[in-house]
Recover the amino acids of this structure.
């Protein structure tokens, strides 16, 4: 009996809770109606307040979230519209509600140029209502948009990779050029050090007076050349003036010797007188 009474009491409590839920839902729907009226009069701010009240009365009221999402969409507040339509999907009780919510999610994503995500949203909408022509049309547009975006991303990726390759090549060429300049500088410095350490050849070639031998030899050579220029050049087959002079002197000397011999013979033929002639 006690159990029976308990069951009866529990049944009445469930009935009362169900009635309270219906009242909250009704009040929420009434507020949604007021919001829709205000939206039709372009009173967005007032309409937004009524939708929010409706959601506060019944958070699981998918209709309230859906209509508020539509209001945000029409006023280009796409992020908030996406949030409310997502709530509508979560609380939707029928396939038609889910279809409409997913369809509007796709539209909102397309506004944000999130084409691939929109493709998935339209797919979900078609799963709940495959016969909706508008959803299928939007689904086709989303696929084309997604394909185009993918191609643009690939092109951008290739361009970025090419730019990176060109940048790496420029950096490598720059490093090679710096390394080459460094090597050339080192070679130049080494040669300069060798030249500085190499003794001056002129210092080793000095005569006894300390004068450079090369310079002295050059001076002597120049002097000889000057003397040769000053001396008359002897032509082949002719005697030089000096040779003629020497030849004449030799002839005179020879003639003098001959004369002396002749005179000596004459002297021997004359008798010498011994007595003095008074």
């Amino acid at each position: 009996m006690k159990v029976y009474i308990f069951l009866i009491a529990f049944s009445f409590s469930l009935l009362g809770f169900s009635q309270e839920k219906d009242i909250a839902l009704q009040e929420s729907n009434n507020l949604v109606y007021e919001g829709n009226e205000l939206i039709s009069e372009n009173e967005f701010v007032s309409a937004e307040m009524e939708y929010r009240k409706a959601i506060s009365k019944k958070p699981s009221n998918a209709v309230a979230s859906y209509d508020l999402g539509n209001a945000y969409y029409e006023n280009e507040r796409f992020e908030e519209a996406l949030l409310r339509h997502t709530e509508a999907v979560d609380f939707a009780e029928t396939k038609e509600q889910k279809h409409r919510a997913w369809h509007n999610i796709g539209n909102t994503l397309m506004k944000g140029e999130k084409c691939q995500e929109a493709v998935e949203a339209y797919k979900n909408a078609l799963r709940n209502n495959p016969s909706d022509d508008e959803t299928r049309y939007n689904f086709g547009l989303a696929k084309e948009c997604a394909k185009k975006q993918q191609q643009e991303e690939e092109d951008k990726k290739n361009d970025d990779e090419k730019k990176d390759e060109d940048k790496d090549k420029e950096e490598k060429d720059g490093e090679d050029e710096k390394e080459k300049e460094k090597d050339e500088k080192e070679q130049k410095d080494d040669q300069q050090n060798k030249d500085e350490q190499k003794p001056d050849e002129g210092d080793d070639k000095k005569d006894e007076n300390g004068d450079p031998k090369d310079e002295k030899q050059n001076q002597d050579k120049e002097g000889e050349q000057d003397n040769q220029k000053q001396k008359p050049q002897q032509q082949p087959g002719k005697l030089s003036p000096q040779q003629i002079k020497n030849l004449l002197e030799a002839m005179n000397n020879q003639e003098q010797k001959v004369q002396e011999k002749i005179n000596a013979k004459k002297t021997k033929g004359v008798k010498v007188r011994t007595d003095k002639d008074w």
About this structure: Residues 240 and 246 are 10 Å apart (CA to CA). The chain is about 80% helix and 0% strand. Residues 133-197 form the longest helix (65 residues). Residues 1-19, 270-278 have pLDDT under 50 and may be disordered.
